[in-house]
Amino acid sequence: SIVETARNLLAADTAVLALWDESGTRLEVKYFANQEGAQIASSQPVTSPVLLEAVRSCSVRRYPDEAQIEGENLRCMIIGKEMKTAAIVSLKLENQPFGGLWVGRLQNEPFTATDLIGLERLADQAVIAITHSLMADRMQSLAVLEERSRLAREMHDGLAQILGYLRLETQAIEATIKSG
Description:
The protein has about 180 residues and is an alpha+beta fold. The chain has three helices and eight strands. It has helices spanning about 1-10, 50-55, 115-180, and strands at about 15-20, 25-35, 35-45, 60-65, 75, 80, 85-95, 95-105. The strands form two sheets. It has a six-stranded antiparallel β-sheet with strand order 3-2-1-8-7-4, with helices on both faces. Strands 5-6 form a two-stranded antiparallel sheet. Helix 1 (about 1-10) packs antiparallel against helix 3 (about 115-180). The N and C termini lie far apart (about 80 Å).
């Protein structure tokens, strides 16, 4: 909902949220919003040098003013058209970029300083949501490991009891055979 909110609040034609892959070498689109609404992307790689540089910078950038690379246009891979203006912000955790959020317009209507502040706040919300999701996943994994450990202990204890019982029965049978 953050990408859709960003697109609506900033009157943009498109909004995109992308995250670096586990190796930190490939920026992949995870969610986007356009006129048709918000959608989950299928980890489509970001290839635009303008976007890659802006996201790596750990700062807020406006295209074309602060995020221009000579000879490079900003083409939106979602709608397949050239963006005339864009606002790009890095998603940061402990001052390390782990993704980016950007909005773009097909018209030559620049984003204002207020728009950038709003986009930064939405990026902060995205970071909180992503961090919460990762922590919830980690807690679930830890709960599964703890449950497996508990089951293994119970199985071990049960098996030890059975083997102890069988040992006693075997000793009783041996004693009966020897005495009889």
